[in-house]
Amino acid sequence: MNVRIREDERERVGSLWRRWVAVALVGCLIAVLAGGCGGGGSGEAEAVEGTIQATTTTTMITDLVRQIGGDRVEVTGLMGPGVDPHLYRASQGDVAALQDADAVFYNGLFLEGQMEDILEKTSEQKPAVQVTEGIPEEELLGSPQYEDQFDPHVWFDATLWRTTVDPVVEQLSELDPDGASEFEQRGEVYKAEIDELHSFVEEEISSIPEGQRVLVTAHDAFNYFGRQYGMEVRGLQGISTEAEAGSRDVQELADFLAENEIKAIFVESSVPPETVEAVQDATQDKGWELEIGGELYSDAGGDEGTEAETYTGMFRENVETITGALR
User: Fold this and answer.
1) 73 membership: H or E segment, kind and range
2) Rounded to the nearest 5°, which phi and psi values hold at 103?
3) How many whole angstroms separate alpha carbon 272 and alpha carbon 16?
4) Does one domain contain both 252 and 162?
5) Is residue 86 part of a domain?
6) What residue intervals traverse the membrane (predicted)?
């Protein structure tokens, strides 16, 4: 018994130590940003010579800035495919990318929750653009987990993601006035591409029988998708992957799926599949053969060089996966 107590104590101390190290690292990174960046701390844009250096957070925003910036902008994305932005912590390499950037672009709405302090400090040194800033507050969904916070997964409503184009065009134009007309033109082309995507999604989802228009995933990344395109959405972990699903959540969801004879549920590329597999097992225990319909991109896009590397390609692949499993 004494051995067990010592093991428990060692684990507790180790956990506290790891937490202290993480906090200390974030503090050091913030100090580096505060002391290492030039520009007088105004956070205002100044015209740059040569190619704009832009640093972005998620893959969707990386693609957004590349689509609009073209050859006039070099984009460094901090988070790659399969990375969970809810849990992502900045590294020293990330701080270097933030320091070297002429402008930083991020989602906001507490998506990059572990980077809030660093992004705030960055905004005191150079332009830091929250690309979702133009979305009217009445269009945002509330968070059931965090009071006074909004659901950050706005990219799964294409009509909302369309509004992220203008803040990027405006910021790039301030940094490179000679390229303003090109940024504006590329922004309009990208808006048209998003409009086409929106029509595609509407048509595809309408092909699913109404009783099967239920989307079940690991966490609530698809609430905007459900509202815009007419699907009931259920997730095990809430809108942030920091929340954990319990056995009661699993059983309640399994009851719903079995009673309604839903064909399939889905795993996510940036979330471990264990919770979804637990729901599948629990549903089968109730006598209903539930399939895992495939893997959806939620908080990050696909691998470099694939169609899903882009926002529109990722969204299309998701919809094809959903309709293929539920039709």
Assistant:
1) strand 73-77
2) -155, 150
3) 24
4) no
5) yes
6) 20-41
